[in-house]
Amino acid sequence: MMLQFWGSKLLQYILVLVFTLALNFSLPRMMPGSPMQLLAGEDVGLLSQQEREEIMARHGLDQPIWRQFTIYLGQLAKGDLGYSYRQRRPVGVIIGERLPWTLLLTGSALALSAFIGVICGTLAAWRRGRFSDLGTLSLFIFLDSMPSFWLGMILVALFGARLRWFPVFGAQSPFAGYTGWTAMVDVLYHLALPLTTLTLVTIAGLFLTMRYSTLDALGEQYITVARAKGMPEGHIVFRHVLRNAFLPVITVFMLSLGFVVGGATVVETVFAWPGLGRLMFEAVLQRDYPVLQATFMMVTVCVIAANLAADLLYPLADPRVRVEGRRF
Amino acid sequence: MSAARIIRSLKKNRAGQIGTALLLLIVCTAFFAPWLASHDPYERVGLPFQNPSPQHPLGTNDIGQDILSEIIWGTRVSLTIGFFAAAIALFLGTLIGIVSGYYRRWLDPLFMRLADVVLVIPFLPLMILLAAYLGPRMSNIVMVIGLLTWAGPARVIRSQVLSLREYGYVQAARSLGGTDSRIMFRHILPGVLPMALAQFIRAVSSAVLIESSLAFLGLGDPTAKSWGMVLYYAQARGAFLTGAWLWWILPPGLLITFTVLAFALIGYALEEVVNPRLRGGIIKKKCTP
Hints:
The complex is a heterodimer of chains A (about 325) and B (about 290).
Chain A lengths: L1 H29 L4 H6 L8 H11 L5 H13 L5 E2 L4 E2 H36 L4 H14 L3 H15 L17 H39 L2 H8 L4 H39 L4 H11 L2 H29 L1 H6 L4
Antiparallel strand pairs in A: 1-2
Helix pairs in contact in A: 1-12, 5-6, 5-8, 5-10, 5-12, 6-8, 7-8, 7-10, 8-10, 10-11, 10-12, 11-12
Chain B lengths: L2 H10 L1 H18 L1 H4 L30 H36 L4 H14 L2 H12 L3 H11 L2 H14 L3 H8 L4 H40 L7 H10 L8 H4 L1 H25 L15
Helix pairs in contact in B: 2-4, 2-13, 4-5, 4-7, 4-8, 4-10, 5-8, 6-7, 6-10, 7-10, 8-10, 9-10, 10-11, 10-13, 11-13
């Protein structure tokens, strides 16, 4: 049972990866226009004859399509993500610079929104139907409807440009030469507004799920038993209900990973946060296709990795899964 | 479930009331755009970067177009894209959901695996990639959004089909020798339509939001300015660093928010009506016993 569950999960992730690879391979080759331009980017016209021949040879453009595919896979297997003719650097290096910033932003936003979502969801369910519950509920549904980039722009206008509380651009103060502790504080200071934006637009889904499943759990018989024993209400909610109501949140959490990464793309663009999302935006503007493709693949790999991690953690949260396979 | 009953229940639902009122307002704006807007949103009608004045209630943008007129006409573009993208998503979702729920043995694993794949892929980066290759045309944007958002609705509809196919009237139709396609489209389809409607409304809501993100990233159709594109230009010209954010950034974003909210509220309300398990819905007050 367990084995079957892992088998199907793994198969799913492999399929996602295969789909991503196939898409990246076929898009530049199937679209109308010169495949060389679609592979190397808009700047191909500025390249010398020798460089053009290099591109031809690199992708095997004069060879049959299946041979091109094996060349493509071979390069990926060696960790070669391509070459940006725009920036004149290997794409792998560019992505290596950007990836940590995206992980910092999305990781902290996910952690923060899960924490706030779960706590607020539990409290709202406990106080169901009262003003505090309906108020939070309306607030989060409203936040859920906002475009994340717009919320970011408003925060910049208010707390960045108007009040000057936070920096509005990038992840570090340029030319400040901070080191050690001060450099870290500087980054956190820059992180404040993008993190707030991304967290606010992510909370809603987690909050709604937590609130709903808490309401369900509150109706269970063991809660009645706990009440009958005379257990204090706060104890019941946080010791007995929370742990059981938490499970659906993990599922929603996994589903929202993709959304958060997508949200990060636009939020990073607003704040010029030097992560993968901003990189993707720059690549779109410059039609730098090698970077665009590699970024998309990298983001997908990150989401798959996060999903796998969540799958591994699920049995820790729900002991029942360990024996009988996943319970839905 | 009859249309009249759905409308009756919707009227009683607070979320449904607010949503419908908001939506009516927005649809009227889109419909009467030529009469409401004072200027042509694609014409330079004044000096660039003007502050609000009686002629230009929300000022002018970086090339001297009237921002209020841009926003009013943008309503049409945003709603059109949202509507058609959701229509594609729901057509695919309903078809796949029904077929998948009906042919449980062989098509179901295939389609549901596919849906899982679509749900795991980070869809905004994928859309950015596709839109960048396909080019910024309105039809491309509609297609890309539609083709990548069918999976959620398909799952919901499939699970309804799974229970519907065991109902007496479906079993009866089968024992009378009804063909598979007749059973699926004459007997099961009407049963899932209310749920499909709820899913459609929710899909419009997310399509409007996705479109605004794509447009903001510079992937919108330049000949059809949506709210997202107004914000793209405002961002590109640094309007949020000046006082202009108040009339250039705030209004289009609020309109996106209220449109998404309106559809989402109606969607929630419809889902409650359609799905008895959710009765009490988002504003559920009692615990399930």
